[in-house]
Amino acid sequence: MKDEILCCFWRCYLQKSKQAYCPRPVNDTPLELVVSDSATDVDSEPERVSPFDLSSFTESDIDLQTECSFGQISSVDRTSETMSVYSGSIDGSSYVLKRTKGNMRMSMPMTLSFCYMALLWLKEPVTLSDLLRFVAEGHIPYINAFQYFPEEIKLYGLDLKIFRVESWPEYEEVHNKMLELAAFLDLPRFPAITDSCFLHPDMLCIKYLMEANLPDELHSWTCRVVKKTGVGETNFLTLDAENESARKANYDILSVAIIIVVLKLLLLLNDQYEWVLSNFAEERNKKNKEGRLWFDFRKWYKVVKTCMDIEQKKLAEERARCLWKCETPLFYSAKQKAATLKKRQMILSLQRQFGALTDSPQVTEKQSPSSFQLTWDEENPDGSCFHGHSLEGFLQEKGNLHRPMNPEYWLCTVKLCNKKVCGHLAHYKEGDFSKSYQFILNLFSFLLRVDVSLIHEEVCLIEHKLFNARLHKKSKKQSKPKEVEIPKAPGNTG
Amino acid sequence: MDGLVEEPALGEEGDSLAPSIHLPLLPRCFYHPVTVGRKKTEFQKTKEACLNYIQDALLQNQWQRAAEFMISYLEILESSTVSKRKTAPEAIWRIGTEILLHHSKSNIEELNYFTERMKNLGVKNYLKVCLEHIFYLLCNGLIDEAYQNLTLAEGWRYGEQTAAQNDELKLIQAYKGLLDYYNWSKKRKAMLELDEENFTDSSEQEMHNFFRQAAVNLKEIIKIPGVWDPFVVCYVDLLEFYGDYDEAREVLTEYAYNSKFPPNPNAHVYLYHFLKRQGESKKSLVSVLKILHKTVPSHELMLEFYTMLTKSKKRKKRRLGLEVIFEVLDFAGWKENVKAWSCLAEQIKQILENSNKHLDWVKEEWNSRKDWWPAFHFSHYLAKRNWQENEKLAYEKALLAGILLGKDCKYYKYVLHQGCKAKKKRFQTLKKFVKKHSSAYLRISACSDSSTHL
Q1: pLDDT at position B83 over 60
Q2: Using CB atoms within 10 A as the burial measure, which of A258, A482, B441, B447 is most buried?
């Protein structure tokens, strides 16, 4: 299923970048043979029937790549027997050359872009941050992906630039590449993302609310914000390469930003108001033991902070411990081969020696990949799960609608930047914002494994959409910077 | 460049000599500065973090944890950064050795295995690794293995590297010489215990072989300016056994007097002992010890020195003797030394009974000490303690206290009281003696007082 999609994308890419499937490939004019050979090779590939399995689907993607380069190499071998086996890919040198504009070149992060695009097309319940997390946890081969290549393919020389990976893929990079790719391949509009789809903010918000241990009742508020800002529209969400305004597709960051905006609406997060509210909640919870507990920000903060500290420490240690090199080393030339192999052997033996010194077995069972990183047990008598708590503490009834008691709001930034100048719409500097806000940003940044500034940028965008009318009205009156007073709650109108 | 040029008003104020300042506005590309440059790869970042964890674990003696992180840190040897690859072998070697030395599960074989690998890792560190390994073996009493390693290392040659690692090579040769000496002395001891008839030619030959190897290496290392005490001692021992006293003398004098060598009191001690063994004249012995006195006034040989000086007929030497003994007692290590005190007491007694001819010597010496010796040596607390622990010491000190500080000194009074109570005869004589020479105290202290009033 997805293999076909990926295959289509891949062929399209090859055609567009004029590496194959076209009358004259850019790289190797003398070897016209290549074109037909690679085409036939790829066409005649055996059907790969692998069930849709989260942990192995990338393998087929990589194999696809290699099929094509395999085709190229094998054709070279056929044409000139004098060339040694270690010639690497024939177009390896072209990857090292400086990138010309408009020329899309393959790289390891690009393979992930391909994957994500395919997932998006199929509307699978996997967000980009989940995907990258699986890669980092090793469920998807990335660092030493060449381990899984078939025997005949030998990586050599300049191929190293591509296949020797020394960094984890970054969200922004993969995401931008994906958008570029979609435009490059002239893809039509992607399948629509509707309310019932997993990637819709309403659904994703539930997921992140659960993971961040926040009350379920916040969900109704997130839906309201989504409706008000028009972020939930199908046209806005669906990726459409031709339509400039519909080119976002960062659903996870979007949902998280919405949650943060809701928290700001209800709790203000100016390092004072939320603590006052939590004092009330605490007193009330002490008096009324039965019934639903009110959401106490202070308690929530303590629980989540301790949990996060532990997890962050664990993550940092695991990152330090991870092994980057695999058993088969890469080397630049035949001369280096012997030395590199020898070194690898020695390192392996040393690792074994030190491994023998450690008590615990080195190979712990690999946990299967899961969507959730943090889970909160409702049955726990500690009361550390806040899902069921009510928001009564900071709502007041008016008619049959609830309004937040908090009458104020502060904008993260009054004016958005120009994307062309600095690449981003908003910049994040830690010291400018309240500690509660920083904490929540850090929490979600950890959950998504994304840089804090990306989330902050999205929050700014949403705020500007939300208070669009207000901002434009006020700007004529020259309002105070950073403090916009709203007499009415936003949920009431619209 | 979009730079606009402005001229400030200053330039217009009429001073034509001052250059006008041009302030270009920032070009547009500087408006949003962004750090660009070689970004650190995750590999490098995680390896740095790994190193921090290892360092923490080492400092907290968590050897297990250090070993765990070491497994992943070993990959730094394959880093793509050239500079990291160069510095990695030494770091790996040192960290690995630390862990293996202290980990409960590791033993000498593990360390040997590891060191072998380290030797193959980088040619630049080869001799250093060898040397440290040899030290480890020596410290753990594995002399034979150390000897084997030394022989192997001595014969190592690697083109340019041999010249670059010359210092280590010299050290290795020196230690080989030392172990050759050790073997030689073992052989010698064994031969001395056997009867003469059982001497075999081969064992004697072996002994001579060791001697030759040792002599060559030890001589070489002593030539280099430095502190080579154990080597010098061994070498001199070898030379003395074979009767080459001239060579020995030359070596020792070089070692002691060559200004290129760092100042080393032990050198003078060795020279002194050698000359004594050779039966040299008192004059030369005294000259050697004079230098020692200058550098280490509290040396244990100072008493010998003092005895030699006081026996001399020359006035200068005896004056020096007094100085020596006073200086010796300046140091806390000699506070309880009965011999030293009795020497000083003897000397003072002699001077007093000798018609006070040299009382001014005493005055000179006492001048710089009268401020602090009372509290240092003659306090009431010390009086009690000395009397309890060592009566002889108390007696000698009391005598000096009585003379130098007068009858009213606390120390003197206490000890005298105790001694008379215990009905010791000599304390009676002491009392009389001090009374007799009480004027001396006045002379000693009075003269110095008057001198301060000047």
Answers
A1: yes
A2: A258
